[in-house]
Amino acid sequence: MEASLERTLGIHDDALRLRGQRANIIASNIANADVPGYKARDVDFKTVLAQASDRRMTQLKMVGSDDQHMGASSDVTDAEKLYRTPLQPSLDGNTVDSQVENAQFAQNTMQYQASLQFLSSKFRSLRFAIKGQ
Length: 133
Known about the structure:
- By secondary structure, the chain is mostly helical.
- It has helices at 2-9, 12-31, 45-58, 98-131, and strands at residues 41-42, 82-83.
- It has four helices and two strands.
- The two termini are 21 Å apart.
């Protein structure tokens, strides 16, 4: 059952977790826009998601001897944070560009909502299939 659910959801559960992590990183950048020397961070979403997809495809299923054992997962929350290259660095060494950060945050939020809507429709379809209506 777990394998078929993972097949049904695909990479979208990982994408949702990564988008949540990315929202926190960008929010931290925005909050530190006036801190001298602060370096803006981000994650390479496409690369991290591709790595999670590769891990998911090659990961061997672990068998637990007890129902309470935790299963293995492809955890995307440990994504490597990269430094954002500033378009115009400030004199105090801060690399946060508020306009870029706000645009990235808005785009990430829309993509997060799209992932939520997609997963919601998947669960609706599964519920419909289970009820047989």
